[in-house]
Amino acid sequence: MAAPTKDDAMRDTLPLLDAIPFPALTRGRLDTLQVNVGYRCNQSCVHCHVNAGPNRTEAMSGDVADLVLAVLARRSIATLDITGGAPELNPHFRRLVRGARALGVQVMDRCNLTILSEPGQEDLADFLASERVEIVASMPCYLIDNVDRQRGKGVFDRSIAGLKRLNALGYGRDAGLVLNLVYNPQGPSLPPPQAALEADYRRILGEQHGVVFDNLFVLANMPVQRFGSMLVSKDEFESYLQLLQDAHLDANLAGVMCRNLVSVDWRGFLYDCDFNQMLDLPLARGAKPRLHLSDLLTDAIDGNSIRVAGHCFGCTAGQGSSCGGALKEAAE
Length: 332
Prior knowledge:
By secondary structure, this protein is an alpha/beta fold. 32% of the residues lie in helices and 11% in strands.
């Protein structure tokens, strides 16, 4: 693979990733619909694989949101995982949550915490609690300098305020109000062991801020979009991919999220995972190069082959990485 140059920093990293072989994977039963309702966000984080930010305009329409609910009902899907951007900024977010909960579907909100203090979102925490939404909150460190360096000045303090607000509503304390935190490394390195880091989070956030939570999810940074471009600009792309490949464990292949999850973009098109969505590697079948949510109303995708490339090693390296944290420790 030819070494990229700094001039390639903002170019698509897919050609570099596509040149790296990865073991073949096949889908199992679909139990999670992960829906990206838009790329607009109130933050612009360095590690963001979505390249989200305040100036993004892509947003799921009401018609597509209705289709999400129809597919949940038609396929008896157990979990709706809502992501973005900041998913709460989509005007149909609350209707989508209410509709899914009315179907008895578990709803997860990938929340950046600072959205809870944005103008117009003052009642958001109360809404999430009233609908018993599971919150998966970005918290890449328990130290202010590290968080603000990765996510922007003042983000740590606003995040702590958000966590305290959620705790006051019962999140992290009551069985039906689940609050999980998400850790990402600061740069091109593998994340530390999940259990040990979770213990540190509990101790420091508890002692210094009085914050409690249910679980810490430790995720590897994926070499796509903003983070991938940053690696290219620093001539670290190849070395990071090699690190992921060298740490690959075949045992992690059985637990990767794409086996039982499908990713949906704001237009309703389907992908094997959120990372494939960002690389525009759509889920396909036969002569149809791009499947849509509407296809799930009539056809199942169980048994489909999964589109893979070099970035997939980010999910199988070391302890493994998925939307629910480390694969190895989850299995144990």
